[in-house]
Amino acid sequence: MTLQQLRFLIAVAESGSINAAAQRLYTAQSNISNAVKSLEQELHIEIFTRSSRGVALTNDGTELLGYARQVVEQADMLEARYEGGGTPQARLAISAQHYAFSVEAFVNVVERCRDSKFEFIMRETTTAQIIDDVRAFRSDIGILYLDDFNTRVLQKAFTDARASFHPLFDAKVHVFVSERHPLARRSQLSLADLTPYTRYSFEQGTSNSFYYAEEPFSYIPCNRNIRVSDRGTLTNLLITSNGYALSTGVLSSEMQWGMASIPLADAPTMHVGYIMHDDRKPSPSCSNTSTSSTASSCQPTVGRRGRNRRLLAPAGMALQWSLTRNVPNERNHVKVIIYTDGSARSNPGRGGYGAVLKYTNPAGKTFTSELSRGYAKTTNNRMELMAVIVALEALNRPCDVEVHSDSQYVVNAFNKHWIDGWKKRGWKTANKQPVKNRDLWERLLTAKSKHKVEFIWVKGHAGHELNERCDELATTAADGSNLDIDTGFNESDL
Questions:
Q1: Phi and psi at residue 293, in whole multiples of 5°?
Q2: CA 146: distance to chain centroid?
Q3: One domain, residues 147 and 271
Q4: Distance of CA 259 to the CA centre of its chain
Q5: Which one of 149, 195, 237, 350 has the fewest beta carbons within 10 angstroms of its own beta carbon?
Q6: The pLDDT value given to residue 313
Q7: How many domains does the chain fold into?
Q8: What is the DSSP string of 104-155?
Q9: Which domain holds residue 217?
Q10: pLDDT value of position 479
Q11: Measured between alpha carbons, how far is 351 from 477 in angstroms, rounded to an integer?
Q12: What's the CA gap between 439 and 417, in Å, rounded?
């Protein structure tokens, strides 16, 4: 068996005919025919069935094609690796389930190694393919999850692949929905709540068993189920329709606007981790990973055991570090800047609110979201409160928040601790009068409780860009059509 024979085999399989393969490889048809025939004789199998319409792979041929591609791919990598005198090059290949945080971690590693020579590969693929990639050394790391339901089956698959599972973090099961979904404002959901809605999940190909699913509770029947193969399609479905997906609840910076992540009650813990082939050695503890030098962090290493087995390079250690340290989960707060404003044409009268949310990720990319809505009859103070409430409720995980408002009514309630006194007195003012807009104050406290919030007063109509933008959003909403009803408005609150 030679590399030439395997290259011919791949070309014939991809072209569908020996003649087309010969033209593609600029060789005689007889050379390819003889190479395939010789390979069949050597292996004692039939690789292709032949007909007037061309050739087709047999079952044995399909299996051989998979191995052939692996061998040719590795050979090409060897040639590329040592081309030009064998200058050291870091190589890291990752296969992962469809997690936004794993891609974000991968990008962080690329940024750390940007001044070095490297070849990095990131594959988002099926669970079975992840395991096979690690088994065949196509990938150094496979990122997936275990829970009480799939552990027994997947651990056996790991053993068969000579791979071991290494935990990264535990996550609670969350329901992903659009921020406009009827369930988006719920603090917690049950499986029964999801019954009326379409379930979105990732297609697992020929290994589409419950145990290989990327979503918990995949074994529970669903009347409406859509399977997709890529994360972009699933994200678009979530944002634009009233379906749902189950996952870790970890949102990347790109996904934090437009979607809500809500805890699922009575759900198993998802143990997110990575698998590595047992002939590779896991990196040291992530806490010992140095971040001081991008160049040194990407130098390849060699093994110390037996036959100079290649260890996971420090680039892989950097990936582990990024996954455990930089994943935007519930334990890592991000900084969000919020500007708000409320407007009412009279008190009471048509009104609206506007809010601008800004977040800058570690790579320096800024994400902005604008929120607004108009009401048929409300007050200015209620709209000032609503702007802050809606902005905080749009955050899908704990954040460090700066709220900039030109409403002293809102800002002083917290900075001068008015609200603490109201609560102590049973929502009564110092004059023992009922606190106005109590419904919104209580809702604001609930929205605020998930975050660390600082209130900052900004002078209104003083030329501040974001304050002016919020004012524009609020007044435009108040003057618009299809105004909502402020069900909490009470004439006694005037």
A1: -135, 120
A2: 17
A3: yes
A4: 11
A5: 195
A6: 43
A7: 3
A8: HHHHHHHHHTTTS-EEEEEEE--HHHHHHHHHTTS-SEEEEEE-TTTHHHHH
A9: 88-332
A10: 94
A11: 7
A12: 18
Looking only at the bridges linking them, the beta strands covering 399-405 and 334-344 are: parallel
Token couple for 381: 């103070």
Same-domain check for residues 368 and 252: no
Name the token pair of 432.
């023992």
Pairing of strands 118-124, 90-96: parallel
For residue 112, the domain's CATH number is: 3.40.190.290
Active site residues: 341-342, 384, 406, 461, 471
Phi/psi at 72 (5° precision): -65, -40
Q: Rounded to 10 degrees, what is the CA torsion of 431, 432, 437, 438?
A: 140
**Residue in this structure with the two tokens 């260890």, named with its chain if needed:** 311
Give dist(CA 379, CA 352) in Å, integer.
9
Helices and strands in the chain: count of H runs, count of E runs: 15, 17
Compute the distance between CA of residue 227 and CA of residue 249 in angstroms, rounded to an integer.
19
In the chain (494 residues long), the average pLDDT of successive 10-residue segments reads 87 85 84 87 87 83 86 77 57 86 78 73 92 90 92 93 88 88 88 94 81 90 90 86 84 59 88 87 40 32 30 48 47 78 92 92 75 94 96 84 95 94 93 93 92 93 92 94 90 71
For the question of whether the overall pTM of this predicted structure is more than 0.85, the answer is no
Same domain? For 164 and 224 the reply is: yes
